[in-house]
Amino acid sequence: MKKILSIFIFAISFLKAQVPVMGAISGPTTHIVMPPIGPVIYSVTASDSPTSYTWSVLVPSASTSSVTIFSGQGTSSISVYYYSCGQTVYTLSCIASNSTGVALTAAVH
User: Fold this and answer.
1) How many CA atoms does the CB half-sphere of 37 hold within 13 Å?
2) pTM to 2 decimals?
């Protein structure tokens, strides 16, 4: 009887598990940058118990600006420093994952 109950509990847990669903990234989206500025904090929420977060920053290759993730990689909140010699458009994105799978990416430009 205990074995059947254990299998039943495992099956319910497995069926209940879902891939995380990302919310929007929160944090400022406009900066007047005089080198350096930071830390600037960004955070994200995700449902279904993510166990890891992967943040990335894309800065155009022709840009003289740079963006550095200073701390928080792997968590739901990061600190970012901006270094700029002009105005640049960048993309900050985050992916949440758990044992069931990987969420769709949340991004801010």
Assistant:
1) 13
2) 0.74
